[in-house]
Amino acid sequence: QVQLVESGGGLVQPGGSLRLACKTSRSTLDNYAVGWFRQASGREREGVACTENRDRSIYHADAVKGRFTLSRDDAENTVYLQMDNLKPEDTGVYYCGARAGPCGFVKYDFWGQGTQVTVSS
User: Fold this and answer.
1) For the purposes of burial, counting CB atoms within 10 Å of the CB of 110, is it exposed (0-12), middle (13-18) or buried (19 or more)?
2) Pair type for strands 33-39 and 5-7
3) Cα(90)–Cα(117) distance, rounded to whole angstroms?
4) Please, which of 29, 68, 114, 117 could form a disulfide with 64 given CB 3.0 to 4.6 Å?
5) CA-closest candidate to residue 93, choices 81, 108, 104
6) What gap in Å lies between CA 69 and CA 1, rounded to an integer?
7) In 10 A of CB 98, how many CB atoms?
């Protein structure tokens, strides 16, 4: 069974930083692409970044390039999302998900429970 547990959300001022963590299992990292998504109130879930299981490649959505960075620590079975220079429009619930197949932002098979990020002064 695939389990994904997010942590690290909170309240931060504009321009600040947060690092989110997605704790999972070695089996998940070996067999699924893992992606980060966000969902603002009243809006659809949006893909942010993804890492592949096959070659550990990492991809970022254009909307966050230069500010957000996905990294992975396979020894800890954890995928991180470093978020810098945060803006109020980054506010939302951040989820990690697992997808059979290559990286993409559709058709995810498993989801974590999400962690709230609020950017406000």
Assistant:
1) middle
2) unpaired
3) 8
4) 68
5) 81
6) 27
7) 24
